[in-house]
Structures are given as structure tokens and as C-alpha cells.
Design a protein that fits this description.
Blueprint (H helix, E strand, L loop, with lengths): L14 E7 L2 H12 L2 E6 L7 E5 L6 E7 L16 E4 L3 H8 L5 E2 L11 E4 L5 E5 L7
Parallel strand pairs: 1-4, 5-8
Antiparallel strand pairs: 2-3, 3-4, 6-7, 7-8
């Protein structure tokens, strides 16, 4: 894995999500356990604005950047808020059985999700939706 003290974008990253979190260690552990993300870069360690970049072999090309932040409301439907994060995982049931042991699933919010999707919250109450890959049945 890359040197965690580096500040460059890991090779192969094409897209990213930036999240403000209340507890970096707890958030990184959750994203690692559930989605295979590993810390590849750290910035401003020990400061109130500490941040970490994570990548996962399960979601190549995606980087999640987490920044330590003050508590604030997350999500909703107001402009400028994050409604949810969607991961296409191939087969939702198999993914949930293999990776989400002990994670509480939540009820979907809104009617724009396929009936086979599953929802969960991360430690900061970001909603994460898992969807079947529609190409898997082809």
C-alpha cells in the first residue's frame, strides 16, 4: 500500500467523495470493515482539521477523503447536502452476508431505489445504499 504520510492522489483514482466526520478512527474502521477501504494518505495529523484518504480494491477508481469536523446535521434534501452514497456491489445479498455482519440495516428513504437495494448508516449518519449491478444478469 502507499506511504500513509504521502499527500498525493493514489494512482488509478478517478473519483472521490469527501466526508466530514466526528471520529476519524471510528469512521476509518467502519469503512475498512464494511467496504475494504484502507488509509493511503494522512494530512494535518493531531490537528483539528486532520484528514485521511482511503481507497478500496472493491471499488477501484474511488477515493474517500475524510476530514475531522465539528458536529453538524448531515444529509437531507436541502441543496448542498449529501442525500446518500450509492455503491453498486454486484449481488447485494451476497455482499451483505460477506461484509456487513453486525451492521444494522436501515429503512430506505425515498422511492427512487430498486426494491433489492439495502441501506445502512455509517458512524456519522451518512446513508449508504447498496445496489445490485444491473449488468450482472446480462
Amino acid at each position: 500500500m502507499n506511504d500513509p504520510s504521502s499527500t498525493t492522489t493514489p494512482p488509478g483514482v478517478a473519483a472521490g467523495i469527501a466526508l466530514d466526520v466526528q471520529n476519524l478512527d471510528q469512521s476509518c474502521e467502519f469503512w475498512s470493515r464494511c467496504f475494504g477501504f484502507e488509509v493511503v494518505a494522512r494530512r494535518h495529523e493531531g490537528l483539528i482539521i486532520e484528514s485521511r484518504d482511503l481507497v478500496s480494491p472493491l471499488f477501484p477508481g474511488l477515493m474517500v477523503s475524510m476530514r475531522s469536523s465539528m458536529p453538524r446535521p448531515i444529509g437531507g434534501s436541502a441543496l448542498g447536502t449529501l442525500r446518500r452514497i450509492i455503491f453498486v456491489v454486484g449481488n447485494v445479498e451476497r455482499f451483505a452476508a460477506e461484509r456487513l455482519s453486525g451492521v444494522k440495516l436501515v429503512a430506505p428513504t425515498g422511492g427512487d431505489s430498486p426494491p433489492t437495494s439495502r441501506w445502512l448508516e455509517d458512524p456519522n449518519r451518512y446513508l449508504i445504499e447498496l445496489r445490485d449491478d444491473p449488468r450482472a444478469g446480462s
